[in-house]
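We store chain and fold; example below:
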Amino acid sequence: MILKLYKQFENIANNEYGDIIENAEIIYSHAGRARKLRLELIDSTYVDIFYSVENNYSLHWEQKNVRNTIYRHDNAPHKKWTNINTFPKHCHDGDQDNVTESNLPDNPDTALSVFLTFVRKKIIEQKHK
C-alpha cells in the first residue's frame, strides 16, 4: 500500500514538477520495505516524503547544506507544539524550532502538490536573488 503511494507521488513529482526535480528515488529499509520517497532538486537540496499506514506523514525539504534552512510539514504529536491551532499538524518554517500552523490538505496527493508548489516558488525566488 505505501509502495503504491510512493510510486503515485513519484509520478506526480516527475510529471508536474519535473522542472525542479533531478531525480526521484524510493528508499527501502534493510527488510525491503518502502521507507520514503526522496526527490533530489535542481538546487542541490532534497525533499523526503514519508507516509505510514497509520496516517503519519512528513514532507521535509532539507536545505541545511545550501541555505541552512528546512521546511517540514508533519503530524507527529510533539507535546512542545500543542499550542499550534492545527495540532498535531504543524510546519517547521525555515528552522526546526520555528513552528507554525500547517494547512496542508489531508489528501496525500493534494498535500504533495501544495508542498512542491511551495518548494518550486522558493527555488525560483532564490534564483532571482
User: Anything to note?
Assistant: The longest helix spans residues 108-127. The beta strands are 21-28, 34-41, 46-51, 57-62, 70-74, 90-94, 99-100.
